[in-house]
Specification:
Length: 343
């Protein structure tokens, strides 16, 4: 796509978490330090919370990727709408534990046996629970019960919980007192500041092999911050789209005009929407034919539909131009290859 046009080795703003592209803002670095501290302590729970798209999963992947301690056997859970039984089944699956039977007692016995074997080998288990805000309170309690597995006064398993802000409410519930007493550190991620957005984008561009120093102007960085509010996932979606737009329009630099045009396109799309405001319901509770207010409301709905259709048409035109450009590029490559073969 746009990689060759801008001289990248790979796409710099992919959505999938990649430790190579990890950017340590002040908040991210603090959270990572807490996770590392938790590892060094070898006990208790570490809790990292933050809004959607602020990089909690990326931190977990970065931690796992840089584990220098070979004595730690780690597993990560990403499916968390689980009852206690399902949680134990998933733990057994992720750690590849052999279990005879599938009752809760069988699962617990299998997990305990596995943890004791690790301890005898000088190792311990680390369980990273992503999207932990989806865990029912009784499943969080089951995690606490797993932390009771000990041998020689040492915990055999440790858990890190990563979740959205709703996780705070679950942990602060009155019946979670015993769990709260097991938390040794917690951190809350925030969106990037305006200066960090510039550093974040330049970091990812550099990691992808970009050698252009002026691909984005300072004004462009500021405007990207305004459009994304500093949320890393939104930045990835938006800047990836900007680079595709720049490729289609054959732009050497991304300026504020391009940013505003792409932002306007994305406002009427479902994917990667930059609009953080909730859409008000447009369905009337009761239709009153002679109501001027209702008529105006219907007109507004029709105008919104028209804008969406117009935006989709513009996007289809751009994609058609992109396909045409790629076909011409392929044709040129084949022609050059044939000519070199004939020589």
């Amino acid at each position: 796509m746009y990689e060759n046009y801008y001289g990248f080795k790979e796409r710099p703003f992919q959505l999938s978490p990649d430790p190579r592209f990890f950017f340590a803002s002040s908040h991210h670095q603090r959270a990572l330090s807490y996770l590392q501290y938790g590892l060094d302590q070898g006990e208790g729970f570490i809790v990292v919370t933050g809004p959607i798209g602020t990089g909690k999963t990326t931190i977990a992947r970065n931690l796992l990727n840089n584990l220098a301690d070979k004595s730690i056997v780690a597993a990560q859970l990403v499916t968390t709408k689980l009852n206690p039984q399902e949680l134990l089944e998933l733990v057994v699956s992720e750690f590849n534990i052999t279990v005879v039977g599938n009752s809760k007692a069988d699962l617990l016995q299998g997990i305990e046996k596995f943890l004791i074997q690790l301890h005898q080998q000088g190792k311990r288990a680390l369980l990273i629970v992503d999207e932990a805000q989806n865990l029912p309170s009784e499943t969080v309690e089951e995690l606490r019960m797993l932390s009771n597995f000990q041998l020689d006064n040492k915990p055999l398993i440790q858990s890190f919980l990563l979740g959205q802000e709703e996780l705070k409410g679950i942990i602060q519930a009155p019946n979670m007192e015993q769990f709260r007493q097991r938390i040794i550190a917690s951190a809350h991620l925030k969106p990037l500041s305006k200066e960090e957005v510039k550093e974040y984008i330049n970091h990812r561009l550099h990691q992808a092999g970009c050698i252009k120093e002026d691909l984005f102007s300072n004004a462009a960085f500021d405007l990207i911050y305004d459009k994304t509010l500093g949320v890393p996932r939104k930045i990835n979606i938006f800047v990836d789209r900007l680079l595709l737009f720049g490729f289609l329009e054959e732009l050497k630099n991304i300026d504020t005009d391009a940013i505003n045009e792409v932002a306007e396109e994305m406002q009427v799309e479902l994917t990667g929407s930059l609009n953080t405001a909730e859409l008000a319901s447009t369905e009337p509770n009761q239709v009153v034919v002679n109501s001027a207010e209702k008529v105006e409301s219907i007109k507004e709905i029709l105008r919104e539909i028209e804008e969406i259709l117009e935006g989709n048409i513009k996007q289809k035109i751009k994609m058609a131009r992109y396909v045409d450009k790629m076909l011409k590029h392929k044709s040129r490559i084949y022609t050059e290859t044939d000519q070199s073969t004939e020589k």
